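STRUCTURE REQUEST FORM
Protein name: Methyltransferase domain-containing protein
Source organism: Actinomadura fulvescens
Requested output: structure tokens
Priority: standard
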Amino acid sequence: MSSTDAVTFWDGVYAARSAAGDPRPNVRLAETVTGLPAGEALDLGCGDGGDALWLARQGWRVTAVDISAVAVERLTGLARSHGLQITAERRDLRDSFPQGGFDLICAHYLHTPFDLDRTTVLRTAAHALRPGGRLLVVDHGSTAPWSWDQGREVRYPTPREVAADIDLDPATWTVERADAPRRIASGPGGRTAQVTDHVLLIRRTKETTIRRRDTPPPRTGNNEIETLRGFLDYLRASIAAKVDGAPEPQVRTAAVPSGTNLLGLLNHLTFVERSMFLGDNVTNWQATFQAAPADSVTDVVTRYRETVERADDVLDQCTDPGAPLPRPRSRRPAPSVRWALTHMIEETGRHTGHADILRELIDGTTGR
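Status: completed
Returned output:
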């Protein structure tokens, strides 16, 4: 079914619900989060907004997303009326995931009759946690009498099955809770019923920060070209190592409003090397900041290192820093070897600094 069908369906569900009074938070959220230090929280499938409002009142800075415009507009109005800072976004999680890192991500009853790769969404959520952050997944373990999915044959996976599907590295993520408690729930019109919740709580361990020893500046020869090439090679190796092994999908996800992402930086520098030393004509530099969707991290890193090797073959021919680069360049003269090396040190160094910050935001890795 299309995204339009899903929006229409969920808009109808929330439009049919009474807007009288503030929605209540989910019981499992309150019992899990009470006592935790407030930070950045993300509410996936915020629905009526009870969880987002409760978190904001506890001091959390909340981003809440839902596919329903009705739900998002209602939550925005409630937050405004209570003076609470909540960023509510209409978002289809099949197409995109909120940017940034979070200390808490909650997904309460993220079930839908429409196509949704929930496992990928939850795996992406786990990777968006900061060290020490928690992912709380609360699923239905039974069907309430007032549920929208009455009459459907539904098998509810256990919390352990959900955790197995997400398939997170136990060295980085710890399952802190996986059980199926029961409670008396209240529905429309004052109806009550016993329901079962499937509760999964995953914590990203604080020990994920990888602090590499800084590599000292290079020892180079004494002449100008050897010195410049030594520092350029130092920066090339640094940014390639910074990208190599970075996790998906964060490695290609924009971490700042400009859209800059770690994999795109290395892809861009590959084109810069090819343009400068191999004579390639690049017509759209902005497009080079995004790697192709089919490219893996290994593909991009390998392509960069192979391009550097070809560029070095050109530089090996250079002995006079004032001479032009020995390669064709359309429409304008080739720059001097000195200018080209100085520019490449500046360009690579600038983006290596960007990469340092982006990689630390992704998984805590620091060092050069």
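Reviewer notes: The chain has two domains: 3-208, 224-363. The mean pLDDT is 87.
Form closed.
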